[in-house]
Amino acid sequence: METMALVVEGLTKSYGDVRALRGVDLEVRAGEIVGFLGPNGAGKTTTIRCLLDLIRPDSGSIRVFGIDPQADPVAVCQQVGYLPGELALEPNQTAAEILRYFSRLRGNRVDWAFVRTLAHRLELDLNLTIKNMSKGNKQKVAVVQALMARPPLLLLDEPTSGLDPLMQQEVYRLIKEAQAGGATVFFSSHIIAEVETIAERVAIIRQGVIVEEAEPEALVNIAVRRLRVRFQEPVEVQPLAAVPGVTILSQDDSVVTVQVAGEMDGLVKALAAYPVSDLETERPSLEEIFLSYYEATGDEQPQIEEAV
Ligand code: ATP
Asked: What are the distances in angstroms from CA 27 to CA 108, 110, 166, 174, 212?
């Protein structure tokens, strides 16, 4: 069994003058859930489409369970449940008819009892005609379509788009259950809370380049954090400012606020020389870290959503 579900190296893609991907490198191990986080236009959809050979990259290499999608797109598609950002559905068909059609494309290997279970859990009436469906219901059809064949790899482009919070939670449960059944999941999102909830690792894309790839917890740990130190009496803080990574943000009588980049060890040892009465730390949220990648270069503020 291949241990890597996805290996992407140096992927580039331009649409005319728009350089959508500028060298994307990415690895997803078999069995993990990886969140692909980035604002509108960062290159998430383009990357996912290249994985399925729906779009040809200009350069770079892709392996999906060891298979090159350009050499054998059918073999790759057989491994994948794909939820596109916008699934075009025939308006006059019912959900059941459409799902039967997708099932036939998969050689009728879909367990229909599982389709009914998925529809029931998502509160989707399979007899509804597409043209009479809300946006959320159409999204549910797309989710069922991606999951129904229990594929080894799920490629989900904004899976909870248009769903209400209860249904979002149900989709998270379904994704976790797919993983428990052995699937690998790679999903794009611009909802940070969503990525924090279900992803074991996160890849952050910015202007067509992956700028970070780590566990959400590790991202929070390597980031800058703030410390508020209350001393028993006003103190001379200059020696603290000399500790590598430490910046004094403010001093108000005996309370000093410092910023620490990286490990805390140096600061903790320096503080041992002082009469400390209290210490409070503030960790940045994943959202603050995400924003910091964009603020650094003065990009437009990314459009991100909080889960409602
Ligand atoms: P979103 O969150 O809005 O879906 P995304 O991260 O998925 O964004 P992409 O859809 O991959 O981003 O788009 C990356 C860049 O490529 C954007 O600047 C977009 O406008 C551009 N782009 C995407 N598809 C096309 C196309 N068919 N023709 C021209 N430009 C395109």
From this structure: 31, 29, 31, 23, 12
Centre of ligand 1 to C-alpha 77, Å, is 22
Q: How many helices (H) and strands (E) does the chain have?
A: 11, 13
Answer yes or no: is 291 within a domain. no
Task: Tell me the per-residue pLDDT of 271-302, one tens digit each, with 9 for 90 and over.
Answer: 999 999 999 887 666 666 777 666 555 444 44
Domain count within the chain: 2
**Domain harbouring 262, CATH code:** 3.30.70
Same-domain check for residues 29 and 160: yes
Would the CB of 101 count as within 6 Å of ligand 1? no
Q: Quick one: how far is CA 191 from the chain centroid?
A: 8
Contacts of 294 (CB under 8 A, 6+ apart): 39, 206, 300, 301, 302
Query: Considering the entire predicted model, what is its pTM?
Result: 0.80
Rounded distance from Cα 20 to ligand 1 centre (Å): 7
List beta partners, residue 20.
none
**Angle at 172 (CA atoms; ends 217, 50), nearest 5 degrees:** 80
Specify if 119 maps to a domain.
Answer: yes
